[in-house]
Batch of 2 targets.
Target 1
Amino acid sequence: MKKVKMAIGILLCSALVLGGCGGSGNSPASTSGSKTESTGSSASSAASASSASSSSGKDSGEKLTFEYFATSMTVEWIQQIEEALKTLGEENNFEVLSADANRDINTQLSQIDTAIEQKIDGAFLFIVDEGSAPAAVQKFDDAEIPVIGETLKLQDGDGKNIAPYVELDAEGVGSNCGKWVAENWESTGVDLSDLSKVGVIQNTNSKYRSDLARIDGFMNELNGGLPGIPESNVFMADCAAEATSNDNTEASYNQVAAVLSAHPEIEAWIIMGSVDSYAMGACRAVEAAGLEEKTILVSAGGELAIKEWANESGACWRATCYYDAMDFAEKMVEGMLSVCRDGETTKDIYSDFKEGGDEYAAVKISGNMCTAENYQDFTE
């Protein structure tokens, strides 16, 4: 993961004043934000957000304690977010604790209760189950602890934002992948000339709206660029069927392998992995079936794809829409320090990302297509 330092300038105050963290101002919201921020652009906005401590924020000389509530620390992406947060903490005088829910929402809710008792200053929340977001956010609201979501939405049952969150521009990332396949398939050496014999595998997890949005974006661009693939040749390898597994790669391998073995009539495959860990399982399943030269695998994420290419493996993994954990972490920290040191509320932050009558913003981070030929440009 590239290390992009965030310049968060904070003027030292002479005395500690009350407010900021411990007064999030969260309450049920109205609608979601949708402005998109390009990957790599959050550093500049972070620099301007925390330029001075206000009369209601905490002195920057006092070390803050934030906690990162993760779905599962076995996921490469989550490990990178944790590392990025801790790097930024070292640079900006705050400590980052981590809580691994092991994909269990009840565990995560219990961890939140414990953190509240320990009086943390703020929370970064990767919710295990989006449907449980209201319960989780309410706990923080009642304790007046600011919370900022990561990757998954923090919304109520009506789809209204109940806290700010930083997410991937999911549909846009999927669209990038679909467009890449439609425009570059000939360069891969995989023959898609007879679309009636081409199969598509949607390698995803139907439990998560973000994952499904990536698939929707992918299919829209793919069908627009390569019209003629029969609907009967489109299959879903749904990892939700093994949702209790801590290994997305294993779940994906099983699902994709089942589709491949059930359809020997397909002569060429296009696979979209909605996250890299799914794509890794798909890659191994393709290799086990001996179909590397007949498969175009693309994904969203990039962290595992780049490792494969660096090791000169994963030949069927043709491209990924790359986004960097530091870009997410910088934006999360920018918002949290605006609350805890500048005295803003969570309704105030990320105002440029609000639309219409939004109370809480949804910051969307976009990505760029990356291949085995140019991946080093993204890791320097």
Target 2
Amino acid sequence: MIAANVDDYRDGARRRLPRFLFDYIDGASYTEHTARNNVRDFEKVALRQRVLRDVSEIDLSTELFGAKMAMPLALAPVGLAGMFARRGEVQASRAARAAGVPFCLSTVSGCSLEEVGRGLESPFWFQLYMMKDRGFMRELLVRASEAGCTALLFTVDLPVPGARYRDVRSRLTGAGMAARLQRGQQILSHPSWAWDVGVRGRPHGLGNVAAKLEPRSTIGDFWQWVGANFDASVTWKDLDWIRQTWHRPLVIKGILDLEDAQAAARLGADGIVVSNHGGRQLDGVPSAIRALPPIADAVGDALTVLMDGGIRSGLDIVRALALGARGVLIGRAWAYALGAAGGRGVAGMLEILRQEMQVAMALTGHRHISELSPAALVHPAAPFG
């Protein structure tokens, strides 16, 4: 396919994927107000165009958690990505490696830690959901370490799953024969996906949590298991429990409130991700980019501040860095690209972001991302108007 930007990959994914998978990627919680604002609020941040500056060489490289990166971005953890294309997480991780950026594997991925980590030389991160079975969680942490993961993203904004209306309507979360039949009809109407993933993508499963599911479990069975096993009793004290097993960088993902960011810094987290889970949890909360500046100002000297949510271009990445992020995670963008064109799509999307960043850097008069600051904005004191 020919893609000029992330939206083109979104259109490609919408055409190629069964509805229940596209809506899973594209949808959010309740009326999806926060998800829309994640994107719209980026558009309100005006950059200063500068001229007659030497921008003949642009350097996008950086270092996060001891690892060098070609660009200040990582592929965020996306659940079920193994269903968007054949062995989807493996394809996406190889595209990330070729681009010189980290790939973060979700707890609820389609491919296992071991399969994705095999031969992966670029920084490999793992995302952890806390579940009630602490023995199983300890086992996951050991597996992540042995697979070569260099950082752990502990997601804290999902004590319970959000209310995602599209997943109900598409029957993604439905159990029973009626839901299976409706998903089957959607699959039959998308034969290229059915061949690529349904036939050539075997074995099907949830690699990291497969041991906890019954044989031949369906997607509906999986969502019932999630609702029953995610631990809503988790508190800040559980960071100590994680530290007993995990001795590499620990990043808290899902921070929106300044007091929570300060607590993460006080308790010794190595980093945080300012995030509202892509608008997929509590609708009506601030966009991630709006929440970023006060948090970065308060704790940016104590830990590494990353952000995700709403990034659709390299221009958005430059805006986020100017507002205080050290780097960003992208989720839907790579999920769209994977669903539209597999690993080649992810590679193409990353190249588009790289080129867009270079143009934005040059036209704002910056040669290295470390130079970006609120001074790169037209309204640094009130960037959202």
